[in-house]
Amino acid sequence: MKFLFIITLLLYASGAVFSSKVRLSYIFSFAGSVSAFLTGCYALTRTLVLWSFPLSHNVALTLYIDHLSGIFIIIAALSWMALALYSIDYSKLYPKKRLSVGFNISLIGMMLILTAHDGITLLIGWEVMTIFAFLMMQGTGKSFERSFRFLAFGELSTVCLVIGFAALYSSAGSLSFDAMHSGSLFVLILLSLGFIIKMDIVPFHGWMRGIYGDIPDNTAALLSAPVTLMGVYGLERIIPLLPGNQMWEIIIILLGAFSAFWGGLQAAAADKIRLLPAYSTVENNGMILTAIGFYALAEGFGGKSLHYLATFALAASIVLVISHTLSKTLLFMSVGHAKEAYNVHTIDEARGVWSGVGRIPALGIVISALSFSAFPPLIGFAGEWMILETLFQSYRFPSIAIAFFSALAGILIALAIGLISFAMIKLIGYTALGYDHGRKSRPIPNRLMHIAEVGLESLIVLGGIGLPLIIVLIGFPQLLIGLLGIPAPLVLASGIPAFGVISPTFIGIIMLVLLIIPILIFLKNKKKVRKVDSWNGGIKLKETEFFTAPAYSQILEHILRGFYRTRETKTKTQSSIKVEDILIRPTEALTRLVRKVGEKVALILMNGKISAYVTYILILFITVFIIGMLVR
Amino acid sequence: MKVLIGIIATDEGERLFILNNGQPVLVKADGDNPERIYSNYSILKQHPSKINDEPMKGPGVFRFRYGPVTAGVREAGCFHLYTYGEKILRATIDISWKQREIGKAMQNMPPESALSMAERVCSNFAMSHSVAFSRAVEMSLNISPSLLTKNWRMLLIESERIYNHLYVIYKLASAAAQRVLAAHVSALFEDALRLNENITGSRYLMGINNIGKLNRTPAIANIQKIANGYGKLAEHFTELYKHSLTNYNYLDRLHSTGTLTPAQAGELGLTGPSLRACGVTDDMNDTTKHLISLPVITQKEGDALARMEVRAEEIVNSCQYLVNHLRASDSWYETEKKENEFTKADGKGYAVANSPSGALGYYVEVKDGKMQHVGIFTPSYPGMHAVSHMLEGLIFTDFPFVFDSFGVHFADAAC
Amino acid sequence: MIRWWPLYGLKRKLTERKEYVSSVKLRLSTTAVFKRSLFVYVIDVGSSNALNFEISALEAPQYNIHRFGIYLTDSPRHADVLLILGHPVQAMMDPLKETISQLPRPFYTITIDDNPDFPDLGEYPALPNHIAAITGVPSPSEILGLLLDVAKIKRKRS
Question: Which of A348, A539, A544 to mutate against chain B (most B CBs within 10 Å)?
Fold first, then answer.
């Protein structure tokens, strides 16, 4: 077991070392991810300490695996495998060394996070992941400042974690996760805040605009799926360990629900092909946050029915995590594939992937978008059903206030799912299955891309149909029952006595049966088919006459103009509509402030005068000296 | 008031066909800059068949094409609506699909044949075309028709006005999904067409007018029945119309839709009920100065509702006019029945008729008893420009209210 | 007094009882497929507008074409009969061909040429299933009679 883990790290390290041969580097990443996957499988059934290195009294670097980390390692490893395969082909187009170095070492960082059992290891992994992800973003985009915003948010999250762990040490005297049961509310708030920031919850999503469209495909996918997964893992790890607090749990439920709503809202108006999935990440992570908060809240109350609900909420969060990671990776890969083939930036320009680029990436877009839109029997359907069912059962709480807030969260999440369906339909209808208008795509190496895409597509479909198996593997067999003729354990029940049930397995079976018989009948009676152009007033439709993707969203942008701050500019020959994400205004304001202050400070300090520089060094020295004396 | 109806290129230079206080006048174009005096000069000079053809660009802006074969606007004509979603940014109207060049086809035809072609330019304005054309030819050949002919022409133009206005109200009611109202107005429309047939033998008043005379005069035995028919029509329509105005939904769709200001109407050279709905009192009723003139009906708002109100009142007034004159037909029916001889074979003439949608002008040059040059100036052409300008800024669902309320036709605009 | 629209005009009997005999000779044999309902799509290829007004008059309650199962459609894809109005203008020939290609089988085409003597305009292209060709401006009664003949719809005796 330890052997597997060391092999994983070694393979990634080799990938980083051999980064000059980019293809080889990514092949090493793939091998390392396979090894990580095996580690995760192994970890599902065991709990053991991998390694412990004592640093000083009460502080030790511990690496540890158990069931929870096993689940997350498996999920992350699937995403890493797909991305590594994708990157092998992608590296032909983009053979930058720093990209493969960043990729490999970032993965090492993530592996450390997933196996950490104390604060320092977690922070080491956290920083390694963030900094090397930042490294992957370099060399692209219009300004350094925009990618620096990502680093700023990453460091903000690190700062919160550092302060949280420091507080834990001061109250419990140890940084190990075992000592968390004596942590205070302050620790809870700060640690969860650190993880929430990493999950791109509003308003910490402000770094996305302006940079997401320019970074390489595998970076975008990495930032969206595995990196936010780390935030979720952190929360899932510490929330059961730390003592709960109702107020904070309600806050994170509402924050998650609002984040989901906002993500859906902005995704519906997004016209850049990378920005729509980015906002979808905000939405999904919002739902996951709500699920985790709900689990903590229900568990805190106790009682049989609420205990079942808490378990169900936890299962919902993990199923959502699985669905999000797989679907988001697939969506970014397929969209990236299309984007590279067409060399464009907006949804409107990247039309007709099915006929213009290839069936497999188009199918990838369709399946992942349907999964996000909760289309049965895919796994996204299961996850979104589960979170809604959880919130529907808020009446079980004895406190009316909590029931009210949960219902409010349910409303917001339902709206979010509706809005994200709207957005995903835009992606399917225009990018995946739209007319390609004779656009030519350039040939790019795509055999491994196709393998990765097909792999994820099958996982999403099979994950939905095989939901009972997933529920068992993640450790909640008590949620599965049999009902109304459907044999156990194919039915997932959301409450006892049965409140709501689904069985995607059964839906899959029925769909298959209903598909086979009509297809057979159709094939038997061959009818004469005549193909004509679509009816358009007697003349063929020209490309300029097709409905555009922005026109599809414009109605929503007009109706919800209060939320979007929709503005129209019109001249005699030009007209356009602009929408705005008002929740990134604080980020933009902060960026402007930092730039101004930075310029001022740089002007004062680095003005070329030696005396100013010496003064600056002296002041710093004295300050550090004083602080050191005080600490002593 | 002065309105420029058309520009004619004659052998002696350019001539401007102007309506001056209701009277048609031909003036020379050289001298002062006509563009300064008449703001629609350049439109009439260029006479584009693609109206308002200025493309609109922008992210997400595309050109939605409605036509040339549609079920809503049955005539052959195309609308190109620039939009980025629901809102119409610009409407380009392509009238070239129905261009039959009738003016050219009339060349070298004897006036009587050319008259039947004039009636077929736009057959729901057949009487107006026929009257304007015959007046122009009569002016060119120095023919003066009898009082009987002139009276009947006036009456039949009012008949034409009645059924055309009923048609506009029928279309507006259908567009607003007022099915009961639309069905009843449609029944009145069919009654009006049947009354036309009773008077003239043709539902569209075709084939009754001729140069200097009428082809046949309506039988006096039927006159009282026809008068009663118009009376009943007016009664039913008044009751129906009053009732329809109590429906808030109906009014809401028409109110403030496609509001035309007097300044805009003046710039486009509009005449007729669309102009009167902006509050401008025009002199179209002075076109013929015998018999009692009808009152000029105006409204103030200039929106689709005002245009409908003007038409509704005109229907009732025209019905009343017809009833009064048909009932009193004993007194003037038996006046002179002069036979006309054509004294001249060459000449130039011009005339205007008060068609249901505005001033309809003809300019003719006759040589050796054959048509030499015919200029047709219909009210639908400036009307289409008005429609195109009024559509800007509206959403798709308001389209039929603007288009139908102006009462313009592609056959009339593209002759 | 406010009168309620659904009751308005209930006492009025507007629908006439006529036999709608048509004098137009059909060029092809008819099928019994359209006996229960006939969907007509109207296209204007250059008419002088009288025919358009006659079609609007045909929708009036006096004729009440719905009682025979005759409907005007909004799309040629739902049509059984294509009613072509007007003396053809060259510009409209291509849209006419495109419209004909959209009609599902079986279908008929009927032409009404309101200005046959018009000089120098286009000619009708070869029309498939051209069951009737009328010249002049027929009244709505005649058009209705023709449609009843084409669809073999049972007439109500007057």
Answer: A544
